[in-house]
Amino acid sequence: MSLLNQAAPDFNLLNSKLEHVKLSDLRGKKVIVAFYPAAFSGICDKEVCIFQENLAKLNGANATVVGISPDSPFANAKFGETYNLEFPLLSDLHLDAAGAYGVKFENFAGVEGYTACNRAVFIIDENGKVTYEWAGEHPGFEPNYDEVMAAV
Fold this sequence. Notes:
CATH topology: Glutaredoxin
Strand content: 15-25%
């Protein structure tokens, strides 16, 4: 299922301060939506750090980053604190956003019945349209970060 050139599905998720964040509230900016399966799981650590390292450049391009995982707001708070992240990590506890974006991942890490989200990146333009999408074959794949930054 491709969302490219379509209106991005809205979401309403909790950040690590237990505040609701809606994609529609971010209109007027480009939004990089980075789905990750689990905090503190190696590749996820690297991914959020790369986005943090590029945050000033992204902000200069009128872009913001949000990370989305099925982790609790409390786990996301610790994850963000550990890596000094300056962008919100959102909790998709029921995988509603992952489902809307087509990135649910069944049996994560080989655990039968454990559903997480796949590693995926979407760029939404100022008007709410998906202009870039990438999803790994499985969560062990990383996006081409240079390609993501260039697409912003």
